[in-house]
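Protocol step 4 of 6: structure prediction from sequence.
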Amino acid sequence: MFDLRIKDGTIVDENGMYSADIYVKDGKISMLCTGTERYEASTTEDASGKLIFAGAVDSHMHIGEYQADFEDMQTSTMAAAAGGVTTCIDMPLNLYTPSVLNAEAVALKKKLLLQESYVDFGIWGGLTPRSIPFLQDMHKSGAISFKAFLSGGGNDFDAPSLGEVRRALMRIKDFDGLAGFHCEDASIISFEKERILKETAGSRQDFLNSRPLSSELIATENMIELARETKAKIHICHVSHPDVARRIERAQDDGIDITAETCPHFLVFTEQDYLLKGCSYGCAPPLRSRESRDELWEYVKKGVISNIASDHSPGLLENRNDDYQTACQSGYGISGVQTMFQTMFDQAVHKRNLSPTFLTRILSSNPAKRWGIYGKKGAIRVGFDADLVIFDPEKEWIIDQNQLFYKVKLTAFHGMRGKGSIEKTFLRGVSIYDGSGITVKKGFGKSVKG
């Protein structure tokens, strides 16, 4: 007998859509039945009229650490489960536990997530000047990829020099690892921030001016050239502008092993939202113009940008409000893991007439392939983990931040309207979200690497 049968739904594969019953045994997809055969299962879910997606793989999350009033591993991963995200890859920059800069810190992060996470997870290791000697040890300890903040990340995350990045890429190439980059040039940003503090009021426009497009372009071009020389695999995080995507496309055409992501906020909002509505729309790189946003979609549709990730970055209410300090002193980052799937479905399918298969590629199969977990995650195929999302393509919604699972009830997506809603989420064949609440205990998540 099977553990689970999901019947009469439409499976959204990366290459097409078809009707089939899904049978699950021991957490794996055991059978996809397109005929009239029926088999016994302990539990049957009726998905008539619904789409069935593979669970999303969010390759860029700041899951959070412990502090009474800040987002933590439980609330972030509860939000992921409710948002159809069954695998999160957590960034290494931590606020309240050691940043992930050595094998011991990787092991600690893994231990905490195994205790607290509601979804499966991977761990980014940090690529900083002092972590370079430990990259291979972190890889062996469970780091699935390595992140450098070229803008400087504070809290142990100094920006590495180009020489240090070059040396790190050589080491990462030796064990066939993946390096990811926050591409903004630290020298431009630090100069502009210092100038603004001396010469201006630190307004919202000043914040935009302090992180110009040239900073993102220069940093991206530098990483492309280092990847060209070292033959290492690289990934460009949160691309904000089509000019950056154009540089990446040229590098891909040259045979460089480079992928890139963008985020829902860059595909929905513009700099005018930030200027008019406030610092809850602040992010780095910053939001760009309406014309740039619309053109960025073309690079997502072409596949130059291989995946969409939330860059879920929670913050305190007072730190996203320039009534408390200038915009240039405010924090930045947008909470978006719970709303990513539904907003991108509405934007892609209902507003741009793209096939739902686009969502499977951009949210599931492409990131699973790049992070080396395809075969386990990223598709509805026999032998894969039964990470499944039952989705109503026509159900209307309005995002209310007070109804989200985030500990800090703040998101730029508050008030947004659309169509297409998650009904249920399954992880390894077990219901983890039933449309209203989380249905498993904390610690249900497993590591996807070791």
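Step 5 (inspection) to follow. The radius of gyration is 21 Å.
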